[in-house]
Amino acid sequence: MADTHETITGNRGLQLEESLIFEQSSEGRLGVDLAEPPHVENRLGGLEREGPIGLPDLSEPQTVRHYTRISQNNYGIDSGFYPLGSCTMKHNPRLNEKVARLPGFASLHPLQPVSTTQGALELIDACAHWLKVICGMPAVAMSPAAGAQGELCGMMAIRAALEDRGDVRKRVLVPESAHGTNPATAAACGYAVDTIPANERGRVDFDAFVAKLDTDVAGIMLTNPNTCGLFETDIIKIADAIHDAGGFFYCDGANLNAIMGRVRPGDLGVDCMHINLHKTFSTPHGGGGPGAGPVVLSEALADYAPLPFVTHGEDGFDLVEHKTGKAAKAFGRLKGFHGQMGMFIRSLAFMMSHGGDGIRQASADAVLNANYLLAELKDTLSPSFDGPCMHEALFDDSFLKDTDVSTLDFAKAMIDEGFHPMTMYFPLVVHGALLMEPTESESKETLDQYIDALKGLTAKAKAGDAAYFHDAPRLTPRRRLDETSAARNPILRWRPPVDEAEAAE
Amino acid sequence: MLAATGAKSMEDIYCDVPAEALLAKTIDLPPHQGEMEVERAISAMAAKNLNAAEVPSFLGGGAYRHHVPATVDAMIQRGEFLTAYTPYQPEVSQGTLQYLFEFQTQVALITGMEVANASMYDGATSCAEAVAMAGRVSKRKKAIVSGGLHPHYRDATSTISGLHNMDIDLAAANYAGDEDLISLIDNDTACVVVQNPDFFGHIRDLGPLASACHEAGALLIAVVTEIVSLGAITSPGAMGADIVATEGQSIGNALNYGGPTVGLFAVHNKHLRQMPGRVCGQTTDTEGKRGFVLTLSTREQHIRREKATSNICTNSGLCALAFTVHMTLLGETGFARLAGLNHASAVTLADKLSGVAGVEIINETFFNEFTLRLSGPAAAAVEAMAAKGVLGGIPVSRLYPDNPDMENLLLVTATEVTTGDDMDALVTALNEVL
Asked: Which of A108, A180, A285 has its CB closest to that of B83?
């Protein structure tokens, strides 16, 4: 077998071993064209740095080769199918990258006079308009840096609105299927988290929810479609009930991709919802960010939106940066400057490319792809719930019963088949969850190959070949990694070997 | 495909949506457009901006224009980096994990700290998270925030750390660089937050402040908005900081109208488990080969839920990669040289401005940014200079609109990209508008 073939270098054809930059340094090598600084009488106040920092010196070709080689140890959407449920790994069009790099945006300083940044403010305003129309909401706070910060923004707006009417409340209701950020956000805003159970259909148990409602409940944080990939059928009733109790409806918009252009959160009674631009509107995930998390707001919450925001002034667009006038009730500021401009440009390009018609088509395609997976796999894997799904298909691990193969093992075997695994063990309401989100980007051919692989692996597991799964993956740059020792004895930075010897003494 | 699902139409598939909420028609937005049309429309918006790279520009104030080598963008646009998710599957994410490990090491080295996380949203949120962390470590609530801290950082910290039950004590805005923070420290103090060089450009020795903090059982949080300065001046770690919370935009990242950027966060080992954000650690695989994984995730929201150290989920991955690639190109030699060029540029600018009537330089010390007192309101001068095609700095009044002491103050920055001609243009423009 190819994977037992030993080589002298440790390289294996196109699979190349690459050391750390710190292990490739040769003093005095330089990867930039910078002249020696001229001599000046320094104004550093006697605080000049003494001694070397310890950074490695590499040339430009070394640097290019290093990052190219390590990039090849990564799997991205460009590499293949990435059905990571709840993460919306759709194609990232390169037009979006191109326009984000236009010098008129990339070289724009955030504190230039607003008279010199009218195009940027126009773009933010245009992006905001698309988001408001798609969501059917009257206002949007653009500045949150990511989804989790968007959640914080929404919950702070709710808190500010409640406090403004002298109604301090203590609890926030969160379904047990929620993303971990939801309870973390509610707690960060000073609320006690009260968990709502799911019913046997994977939705919020409406009666249990109503039983928890009282004048101490600030709001509910509900993902819709929910993390099981299901539309919350009682959502309008839930919104009405929370409003009747004087609370607010926070919707986690992580799954907007299933409904954009078809269902407007505003029509469902939502008071605020963050939008992960890096999911629904295709700004690149970038190995973990940067994201962007604008928050659409209802009339009741709009006045509390954080600083800054764009307004239409007499001489064009204006930027409100201080807590006066229109912004008197703003709850504060969440980050430096004006939000993730680079992401606004990319998502506007995505939205304009799709148009109102294409956005509606994309959500249907995403939902159809997920239902195709669900239909083709329902007799092989074990679907968690009956009926059609939205943009992601959820299975539990009962199909692996008595095989000695876990969800994790099964997912690792998918890697050897050339796929990124699905989301595993989330949502928590399903045992050994496998959550698959194909998005609208994937062709039927890709889905069919994936389905064949899942069927083949299931047959292998049921045939008793558990060892195959326990050893997977075999064909990756690294085999399974020891996460326990990584956490127990954290090595979080490189140190020169001599340090290690000293440390051992 | 629809037939395979057993549904007759998409309406069947959307059967769980309440009928009254299901839109029958396309929403009221323009129809789809081709690549050419979209590029044309967005380019037209870009063209309405006065691009800071094309005119003499002296803006800093937490966002700095530097030369980013072409290699950086070529590397971060590799699809394997650009289109990957968070590296939760380490066997197919060693590329991301390895650069995060390198990034963490670089950040720890330049800040003079023991460990760093895999990045935060930006400098302001990094600062806010540092204050919240100081509350957890010290089990105290009072945070003293310097009047020399960037106003956006002061505001973001008030907004975000206020949530963590921290009492934020904002010292009065101080443009002279002579505030006394030590006298404000008491036994209830969780932390002191100080920026160096500060918002107005002053450099200070943090040593005495660090000692005072430690005597009182408080933590010193050092903020740096211009990370290039650490190539020239003593690191915050060496001066006794307990947490270093900085903005890393200057290395590898364009201005982008202020976002996205990359927050850096570094601490000492003893506080490691109270540090927010993702962390990458070294380990081995089943064959004994070195590899990397995300670790210490028991602090994080997806495990701890409401008990997490922070609700933060993402880092600033691709911006961190840009930082790492640029820092690798620079290396020890290049980073020191870059810092030297910046400082020399600013000293030259200060020399040229010192002869301009109606301009007084406030700073004794600075790195690449300093404060001028003009003979009239700075905002009007900046507008008038912009009309002449010179982005002449930041009127401090934009950030402190209601403070009469700030009205005439202008913050100016010179970096390695600032030319002698640019400086002469600023001198001319100031002579004309003052």
From this structure: A285
Domain residue limits, chain B: 70-327, 331-433
Q: pLDDT value at position A435?
A: 97
Output B9-15 pairs: Cβ under 8 A, ≥24 positions apart: B10/A364, B10/A367, B10/A368, B12/A388, B13/A367, B13/A368, B13/A371, B13/A388, B14/A231, B14/A262, B14/A367, B15/A387, B15/A388
Using CA coordinates, name the residue in chain A closest to B63: A109
What is the pLDDT confidence band of residue A503, given thresholds at 50, 70 and 90? low
**Higher model confidence: residue A180 or residue A82?**
A82
Cβ separation B293–A486 shorter than 8 A: yes
Distance from CA of A162 to the nearest CA of B (A): 15
Task: With CB atoms and an 8 Å threshold, state whether B5 touches A375.
Answer: yes
Q: In angstroms, how far apart are the furthest CA atoms of chain A?
A: 78
Contact A174, A151 (CB under 8 A): no
The reply to whether B331-433 shares the fold of B70-327 is no
Q: Inter-chain contact A44–B53, Cβ cutoff 8 Å?
A: no
Specify whether the CB–CB gap between B310 and B278 falls below 8 A.
no
**Which architecture, in CATH terms, is B331-433?**
Alpha-Beta Complex (3.90)
Q: Rounded distance, CA B97 to CA B280, Å?
A: 6
Q: Do B257 and A109 touch (CB under 8 A)?
A: yes
Q: Which domains does chain A have, with CATH numbers?
A: 11-31+55-72 (no CATH), 95-351 (3.40.640.10), 361-477 (3.90.1150.10)
What is the distance in angstroms between the Cα of A246 and the nearest Cα belonging to chain B? 22
A2 pLDDT tier (thresholds 50, 70, 90):
very low
pLDDT-derived band at A5, boundaries 50, 70, 90: confident
pLDDT (average), residues B351-362 = 96
Spatial strand order of the sheet with A217-223 comes to A139-141, A295-297, A272-274, A248-252, A217-223, A171-175, A192-196
B289 shares contact with chain A (CB less than 8 Å)? yes
The answer to whether domain B70-327 has CATH 2.30.42.10 is no
Contact pairs from chain A to chain B, CB under 8 Å: 673
* Nearest Cβ partner for B254 among A72, A107, A357: A107
Of residues A18, A103, A352, nearest to B53 (C-beta): A103
Instruction: Answer yes or no: are the C-beta atoms of B78 and A68 closer than 8 Å.
Output: yes
CB of A248 closer than 8 Å to CB of A158? yes
Contact between B84 and A360 using a beta-carbon 8 Å cutoff: no
